[in-house]
Design a protein that fits this description.
The complex is a heterodimer. Helix content of chain A is about 0%, strand content about 55%. By secondary structure, chain A is an all-beta fold. In chain A, strands 2, 4, 5, 9, 10 and 11 form a six-stranded mixed beta sheet that branches. The chains are: A mainly beta, B mainly beta.
Chain lengths: ~110, ~120
């Protein structure tokens, strides 16, 4: 079993929809949680960075962490075709070594 | 502020050769981490350097090595290349000084093809 599980998708939604992306994990020592967006043939771009449990909002993006359930989510409101990309969750114990999910491919159609 | 830069962007090598990849972190960042990304395994941690010292290491064979210079620039080397080493190699930089300073910012990657 992988330390971090993420549905690879693809997830197809119409423009304007609310998108929910999720990851589960098994290592209770993880304390720092990140979401990255990766366009084809590019490096991952950091979207959200959260510490421990709780919510964090940045524009159209909201990250949620539930450590009791070992479950993290990223919500994208008013999705746009430019949001079409692969979304990667990542987490670490605090010592730089990030453990990534496999990534969810999101397709937003006009 | 300039982002993380990696050179070269593309490389083609043959089995048995060795390769050196370079990474320049964001100015002021002292931690550089290297990751391998493949379609089958996803993103996997190789190693991390902080102030010229390897601080963390992933589960890769000794053919994969790295170093960091006093200006925080880093190189990774792969010796005796195998077909399975074909991948996108990503470098990420962070402040890295404390446990919480680990927002990692990635470069565009070096795409290595081994023939």
């Amino acid at each position: 079993q992988k330390e971090v599980e993420q549905d690879p998708g693809p997830l197809s939604v119409p423009e304007g929809a609310i998108v929910s992306l999720n990851c589960t994990y098994s290592n209770s020592a993880f304390q720092y949680f990140m979401w990255y967006r990766q366009y084809s043939r590019k490096g991952p771009e950091l979207l959200m960075y959260t510490y421990s449990s709780g919510n964090k909002e940045d524009g159209r993006f909201t990250a949620q962490v539930d450590k009791s359930s070992k479950y993290i989510s990223l919500f994208i409101r008013d999705s746009q075709p430019s949001d079409s990309a692969t979304y990667l969750c990542a987490m670490c114990t605090g010592f730089q070594k990030l453990v990534f999910g496999t990534g969810t491919r999101l397709l937003v159609s006009p | 502020k300039a982002g993380v830069t990696q050179t070269p962007r593309y490389l083609i090598k043959t089995r048995g050769q060795q390769v050196t990849l370079s990474c320049s972190p964001i100015s002021g960042h002292r931690s550089v981490s290297w990751y391998q990304q493949t379609p089958g395994q996803g993103l996997q941690f190789l190693f991390e350097y902080f102030s010229e010292t390897q601080r963390n290491k992933g589960n890769f064979p000794g053919r994969f090595s790295g170093r960091q210079f006093s200006n925080s620039r880093s190189e990774m080397n792969v010796s005796t290349l195998e077909l399975g080493d074909s991948a996108l190699y990503l470098c990420a930089s962070s402040l890295g000084g404390l446990a919480g300073e680990n927002e990692q910012f990635f470069g565009p990657g070096t795409r290595l093809t081994v023939l």
